[in-house]
Input
Amino acid sequence: MDLTMSSVFLLLLPIWTALVSAGVDDMWDGLNIKFGKHRPLPKRKEDAEKENYKRQNDICRTDNYHGFLYRLEDDSKLLPIYDLNGYLSGIQAIIPSDMKGYNSFNESIELPPHEIMPPVLVGKSDIQTYTITAYFKHPQLLCSPTYLSNVPTGKGLYIQTGYDPIKHHEQIPLEAKNLSSLWKKALCLTTMGTHYFYNVSRDMQCERLYPVFLMYDSEGQLAAFGWSFQGEPYEGPNSIVSWYQIRPETFYFIFDVNQLPPCMLNPNFRVFGVHIWLQNHNKTNMRCNPPSTPAPQPRTTVTYKEPHSGSGAGPNEDKLGFEQSDKDQIVKNRRSDNIQPPLSNKKSGTNSAVPNSLNKCLFLFVFVLRTILSQFSVQNV
Ligand SMILES: *[C@@H]1O[C@H](CO)[C@@H](O)[C@H](O)[C@H]1NC(C)=O
Ligand SMILES: *[C@@H]1O[C@H](CO)[C@@H](O)[C@H](O)[C@H]1NC(C)=O
Ligand SMILES: *[C@@H]1O[C@H](CO)[C@@H](O)[C@H](O)[C@H]1NC(C)=O
Ligand SMILES: *[C@@H]1O[C@H](CO)[C@@H](O)[C@H](O)[C@H]1NC(C)=O
Output
């Protein structure tokens, strides 16, 4: 009996593999995250296992998500999910729960606020665990071999919005023009794209700061996405991946501050999160504006905490200087349209009458960050 079963299986395997591999080219080309420097998420579960990621579940459909969740040591920020065939198909973050934040009246509240659940979900078996999950293909395709013959594209983005991802998810448009008007356009950041935040406004209640934001490239194609949560999580000395951490003075790192409500300007308000790239970050259409001036004097500091372990980085190197020379110019530029045409081969600066110092600053920041961090590279284990 077993023998027959396994020979049938062995016969089917090549067909199965052929069908599945037809879908590989359809995967997002970028799919990477920043562990100090950009590095790709393992595209296959075998690669993840080689990199010491450990599988967290044995059954494809769990009470909280679908697919096989993998975790690298104690990292709780970027847990890849593989489908039944071992292809990278999603990503989950576990959100720290022992934090306090603020509501729209500047009153202290427990985080994460229930207003953002979903898409933040409380663990069904462990009520202390808060997660948020995105899939790169329709959640129906994660655990269903019956869909094999119709090999799915891996180029999608679906945010899980309930315990059954097949029924409860939000499909993110691949083109910016198809976004609902509730997604508010914010800044363009080189290597990241133009940011969109859900229903942010002057009237937004701070407890409703939506945990998902999107980034589209200069051609309006979905390029990346990120998580944004209120709070200031503790980073253990051994954390491999770091959250970006911003405060009111540094919100312009990702937000258009003119769109933010007063409660977010409460000096104690904190936001943290992480970016996940779907497209290659260094494509031309991921640029906003060419850089052309040398670094001005440092004025403020953005904390983008980075790994301590194995990096040799001293504590002072956590803080990376962010250059800002002309606040007024920055405010002015925030009001301008931030979508820029892709870079041509022409030398920059010859045709741009008004220099966009914000973009330059941000580019410099990202550039400096990448240069510095490339020296802290996390060892591949
Ligand atoms: C996106 O919008 C265009 C019109 O602007 C429409 O033709 C197209 O069907 C939309 N795509 C989706 C997936 O809704
Ligand atoms: C959008 O934000 C406004 C102002 O905070 C709020 O009244 C409205 O209910 C929100 N809409 C949705 C769909 O979240
Ligand atoms: C909350 O704090 C901010 C910044 O300090 C202030 O502008 C705002 O008016 C405060 N909101 C309330 C409701 O007190
Ligand atoms: C973009 O980055 C990838 C790796 O992150 C690298 O292999 C590639 O050569 C880079 N391309 C350019 C044009 O810099």
Q: What stands out?
A: The helical segments are 2-21, 45-50, 327-334, 357-374. The first helix runs from residue 2 to 21. The first strand starts at residue 32 and ends at 35.
